[in-house]
# Entry
Amino acid sequence: MVTQEQSLLLSSYSYQGIIPSPVLGGNRVTTLGKQEETMLSFLQRLYTYDHWANGVVLDTLEKSQDNASARRFLAHIIGAQQIWLARLKGEETTAVQVWPSLTLAQCRQLLEELRQAWIEFFHPLTPERLRENVSYQNTEGTRFTNPLQDILLHVAMHSAYHRGQIATAMREAGQQPAVTDYIAFVRR
# Structure
């Protein structure tokens, strides 16, 4: 558990505008107003990357012999994003499965729906809104409150973690996983 003091220390370091990214023009320290715009731009770019990476994984799975384990992890990425998006929009999440059983065709359709939903979610966001706390209940029923920007970062990192598990499942089955490194996205 991160203490409030640690959180303040981390936030003062993390949001100094020193985030290497083509969007930001490299490593640079910016003024407070620019820092906030930088976080929003960073998250928008991160979600563009996330959609690309999930699509590359799906393309690879569609070209490979069915790998139920890899497909299950991709379905979980989708289910988790659906749950978080519903939480952030103040919608009920009990009907959304965190580990849904999906076909690859269903994954493709839902990933496209999520892409559009995230675009719509990000469109009105402001730097001030990113700092606002969001209260939510996790799947075990425990209540938490976190800043929106931290939740959005978590969702993208969660997807990356499970894409790693997909790559492992594919390698274990003798299959070649997709290359989903961020740098591959930037180079395209």
Q: What stands out?
A: The first strand starts at residue 133 and ends at 137. Confidence is low (pLDDT under 50) at residues 1-32.
